[in-house]
Amino acid sequence: MSEENLQDISFDFTKPAKMQILGGYLLDISAKPNLNVDVGIEIPKSCFKNSDLINYRYFDKRNIYLWYIGQFLKKFDKSCGSLKFTTMFYNKNKPILVIKPKRKKVKENDDFVIKIIPYISKDVFKLNRLL
Questions:
Q1: CA separation, residue 55 to residues 1, 8, 9, 61, 86 (Å)
Q2: Would you say 13 and 31 are in contact if contact means Cβ atoms under 8 Å apart?
Q3: pLDDT tens, 27-44?
Q4: Residue 55 dihedral angles phi and psi, to the nearest 5°
Q5: What is the pTM of this model?
Q6: DSSP structure string for 58-76
């Protein structure tokens, strides 16, 4: 995200429209001992404008939204051991937040992480604008 792009972005943070457990943990098929829980957060439609499809602004806003959640958790949630931003499937346009909670390990290699995955509702942008 360039500084030039940031000047064009207006963004008001609004709490997630929806939060839900995703992936293997939900289906009770997580690989042990390294458990991870994928938590999807729906970025509200009100955070976007139709023009956000231009010049990657949608992706910039998605990054900013996730960064804001990370800052909030760091400040107000004492159970967060560490927070790390990474990408989903090595795609820089799909950031995720990985949280390693503070907790006592049962075994030496007993790791547990929570992955925060932002997404939008399918009605945020008209499909024909994406083609």
A1: 10, 10, 11, 11, 22
A2: no
A3: 777 776 678 899 999 999
A4: 55, 35
A5: 0.83
A6: HHHHHHHHHHHHHHHHHHH
